[in-house]
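ok new one. same drill as before - structure tokens go in, u give me an amino acid for every spot. 449 of them this time. try not to just spam alanines like last time pls lmao
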């Protein structure tokens, strides 16, 4: 026995223990739910089986009990319980045991059946003789020993059949999700499909473990030393455990990472153009701005970023023009854009014109921006992720329709522009009564009659 052999079994046990700790809060909250209990039972019994299969643990258990190879009986009972938990998990996946009497009856049959298996394992071990402690090759060493042989076969067949049934159920569920569920394209649906696929592979690897053990036992019956196949089967068992742990973790971790990490980071990046636009030229007044601690996570940073953008847009409201927004919105609708895209495009054009007016030193007029701010708040209440849409429109200047810039404070609204954007072509000043273009006066020029 080498320490590395024990470590190779402690690592998958630790991996399953981590999964069990992650799922523990759901077990505490929903301990009456059969599905939750079944999943946690599968993880617990498999982790316990690997822990007590390690050579170091085998020696410790045998020394404490004073019975040679008592640890083998313990491991076999744990494997039988693991096989029962897999069967029960498949039944609970198929139906809700709380409302389906047939499912409850099938679950009870599987439980009592594996209780009988565990009792038979104890009976076989009691009737058989295994005086020599075997830490790694118990199955092949006692393959021809009466009653111990039956104990080994009973356990291996039960575990292999349970793993095959679990693999088939996971594969069927993954196929049903891919074919019938439109929500599979969501992060949660995609993670569930991937997790089920990994679980299928993990349970199939456990089937390989059982088959390898049975082949090694059959070789011992024929007088061949196939212990190498037995050890290969143990390696497959470790790999299968890691895959099963990953399969249970993926549906839990991926949606959480998407909601708490990847989603906020993507939104932070998407809000970049809008943040740069509203910040342009507004930091010179020396006012205190919202700062985010360096240790803050993506969600906190996103909240602070959106709060900062809202505050700066309110400051920019005195330079905004509702007419610019309406003109850009109408142009975007005529260009065939969707309602949400048109609303974002109109607001992006309004922000662009307002920042330009502020940069040119136009006198602010809070009254003229009241309607624009009301339009912004109404659009935020109606359209999801409006700020992201505005930022994307700002990041694509070619997509912004050409329109009038924000009018300087104090200039009257021209009658032809107030009547609608179709009165003149984009990029040209409206025509006067004599047919010639009316040139916009520069900012600050007094208007004469």
């Amino acid at each position: 026995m080498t320490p590395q052999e024990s470590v190779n079994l402690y690592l998958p046990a630790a991996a399953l223990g981590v999964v069990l700790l992650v799922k523990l809060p759901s077990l505490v909250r929903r301990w009456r739910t059969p599905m939750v209990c079944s999943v946690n039972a599968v993880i617990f019994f498999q982790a316990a089986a690997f822990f007590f299969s390690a050579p170091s643990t085998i020696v410790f258990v045998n020394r404490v009990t004073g019975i040679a190879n008592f640890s083998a009986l313990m491991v076999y009972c744990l494997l039988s319980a693991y096989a029962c938990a897999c069967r029960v998990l498949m039944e609970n996946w198929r139906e809700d045991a709380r409302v389906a009497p047939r499912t409850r009856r099938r679950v009870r049959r599987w439980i009592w059946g594996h209780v009988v298996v565990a009792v038979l394992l104890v009976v076989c071990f009691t009737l058989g003789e295994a005086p020599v402690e075997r830490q790694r090759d118990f199955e092949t060493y006692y393959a021809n020993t009466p009653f111990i042989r039956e104990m080994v076969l009973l356990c291996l067949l039960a575990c292999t059949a349970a793993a095959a049934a679990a693999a088939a159920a996971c594969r069927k569920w993954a196929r049903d999700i891919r074919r019938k569920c439109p929500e599979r394209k969501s992060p949660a649906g995609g993670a569930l499909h991937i997790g089920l696929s990994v679980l299928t592979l993990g349970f199939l690897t456990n089937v390989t473990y059982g088959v390898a053990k049975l082949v090694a036992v059959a070789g011992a019956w024929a007088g061949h030393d196939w212990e190498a196949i037995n050890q290969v089967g143990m390696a497959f068992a470790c790999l299968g455990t890691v895959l099963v742990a990953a399969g249970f973790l993926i549906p839990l971790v991926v949606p959480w990472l998407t909601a708490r990490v990847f989603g906020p980071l993507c939104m932070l990046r998407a809000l970049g153009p809008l943040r740069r636009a509203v910040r342009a030229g507004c930091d010179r007044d020396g006012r205190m701005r919202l700062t985010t601690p360096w240790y803050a996570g993506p969600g906190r940073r996103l909240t602070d970023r959106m709060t900062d953008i809202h505050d700066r847009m309110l400051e920019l409201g005195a330079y905004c023009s509702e007419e610019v927004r309406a003109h850009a919105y109408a142009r975007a609708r005529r260009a065939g854009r969707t309602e949400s895209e048109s609303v974002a495009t109109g607001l992006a054009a309004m922000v662009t014109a307002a920042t330009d007016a502020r940069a040119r030193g136009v006198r602010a007029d809070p009254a003229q921006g009241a309607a624009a701010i009301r339009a912004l708040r109404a659009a935020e209440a109606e359209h999801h992720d409006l700020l992201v849409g505005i930022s994307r429109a700002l990041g694509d200047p070619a997509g912004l329709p050409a329109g009038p810039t924000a009018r300087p404070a104090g200039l009257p609204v021209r009658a032809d522009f107030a009547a609608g954007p179709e009165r003149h072509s984009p990029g040209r000043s409206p025509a006067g009564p004599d047919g010639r273009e009316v040139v916009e006066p520069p900012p600050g020029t007094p208007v004469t009659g």
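Residues 227-270 form the longest helix (44 residues). and btw Confidence is low (pLDDT under 50) at residues 403-449.
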